[in-house]
Amino acid sequence: NRQFVLARRPEGKPVDDDFDLVEADVPEAGPREVLVRTRYLSVDPYMRGRMRDEESYAEPWAVGDVLQGGVVGEVVESNHPDFEAGDTVTGNLRWADYAVADGDELVGIETGGVSDSAALGVLGMPGRTAYFGVTDVLDPDPGDTVVVSAAAGAVGSVVGQIAALNGCRVVGIAGSDEKVAHLKDDLGFDAGINYAEADVAEALGDAAPDGVDGYFDNVGGPITDAVFEHLNVRASVAVCGQIALYNEEGVPTGPRKLHTLVEKRARVEGLLVGDYAPRFAEATERLVGWVQSGDIAFRETVVDGLENAPDAFVGLFEGENVGKQVVRVESE
Ligand code: NDP
Questions:
Q1: Which residue, judged by its Cα, is nearest atom 18 of ligand 1?
Q2: How far apart are CA 255 and CA 248, in angstroms?
Q3: Fewest Cβ atoms nearer than 10 Å: which of 81, 173, 290, 297?
C-alpha cells in the first residue's frame, strides 16, 4: 500500500522533494469502518493551504502526515451496514492505494451513469461550488454579464455554463488560446480572454461592452484588478479562490483596485462550498440533470499512477489541466 506523506512544507510552488511516497501495510477496517481501494484521486488547489503551518478552514497537515484528498474507490471490505464489497464510494480519503474510513463519512456515488470520476469534478465538490456560487452568491439576472476566472478549470467551466443557463452573457478568462477556444466552442461561452497574451482590462472592453454585473473570482491577483475596473454599479463578486496567491510567501499582489467597489457600490462575498452541505443533494440532482441533457459539458484531465499525484497537483498552478484534474490509481 503506497501512500504519500508531506515530507516538508513547500516554499513557493511545491516541488518533488516536498512529497514522499512510502510503503505501509494495507490498513484493517475496524467497527463501522470500510476498507477502500482508490480508483481516482482528486488533486485540488486548496490542498496547498493545508501544506502551510497556518490555521484555515481546512486544518493544516503536519510534516509526516499522509496527504488526504477526495477519492472515488471500490469497497474491499465493509464493517458498515450501508456498504458491501464491490460498491463504488466517494469520500475524503488519502493519497494512497488503500485507506479505511468510517462508513458514515462515505457516500455512494451519484453520477446518473455519467462516469465514476465525475463524482470528483462536475458532479462533485467543484460542480457544487459552481452551482452554489452562481445560484446563491452571484444570483445573476438574465441579460447580466458574468465573468469567471480560471474559466477552463473544474469550477470555472461549470460556473460559466450555469450562468449561461440563467440567460447571462458569459466571459471566461483562461491561460491559453486552446483553453479560450474550448470555452467558446465546447462550453458555449460568449467570449474568452487569454490572460497570458492579452491585457485583460483592455480585452474586457470588447468582451464585456456593457460592463460586468457578476464576477466569479477563482484567482485573485492582477486578473481580479482588471475585472474590478469593469464592474457595474451594484455588481456582485463571488470570491471562490485566489489561486494566483497560493504559492506566494510575501504580501499578496492584489486585488488592489478596491476603490472601484466604493464607486460601484459592489458587493463582494466569499463562499465555502462546505457551508451548503445540507443542500448537496439539490446540487447533485441539478448537475446530473444538466450533464445528462447536454446543457453542461465537461472535460477531465487524467494523470495515470498514484506516483504522479504530486505532478498533477503542481500542474494546477501551471494551468496544465483542462477541466477537472484527477489521478487514476491502478492498484491491485
Ligand atoms: P482548476 O481546475 O480551475 O485548476 C486551477 C486553474 O487555475 C489552472 O488550470 C490554471 O488555469 C489557473 N491558474 C493557476 N495559477 C494561476 C494564476 N497565477 N493566475 C491565474 N490563473 C491561474 O481548479 P479548481 O476548479 O479546483 O479550483 C478553482 C478555484 O476555486 C481555486 O482557487 C480553488 O481554491 C477554488 N475553490 C474554492 C472552493 C470553495 O469552497 N471556496 C471549492 C473549490 C475550489 P489557467 O491555464 O487558466 O491559468
A1: 244
A2: 14
A3: 81
Decide whether any atom of ligand 1 lies within 6 Å of the 222 Cβ. Answer: no
- ipTM of the prediction greater than 0.95, yes or no: yes
Going by alpha carbons, the residue nearest to atom 22 of ligand 1 is: 244
Specify the pTM.
0.97
Q: Is the CB of 237 under 6 A from ligand 1?
A: no
20: number of Cβ within 10 Å: 16
Give the SS3 label for residue 243. Answer: helix
Find out whether the beta carbon of 78 lies less than 6 Å from any atom of ligand 1: no
194 lines ligand 1 (CB under 6 A): no
Q: Is the CB of 155 under 6 A from ligand 1?
A: yes
CATH architecture entry for 125-274:
3-Layer(aba) Sandwich (3.40)
211 in helix, strand or coil? Answer: coil
- Ligand 1, atom 43, lies closest to the CA of 126
Does residue 46's CB lie within 6 angstroms of at least one atom of ligand 1? yes
Query: Ligand 1 mean position to 157 CA, how many Å?
Result: 11
**Angle CA 63–104–52, to nearest 5:** 20
- Tell me how far apart the alpha carbons of residues 47 and 91 are, in angstroms, rounded to a whole number: 15
pLDDT digits (tens, 9 = 90+) for 72-130: 999 999 999 999 999 999 999 999 999 999 999 999 998 999 999 999 999 999 999 99
* Residues paired with 42 in a beta bridge: 326
Cis preceding-peptide flag for 209 (omega within 30 of 0): no
Domain boundaries defined on the chain: 2-121+298-328, 125-274
For residue 152, the ligand 1 atom closest to its alpha carbon is 47
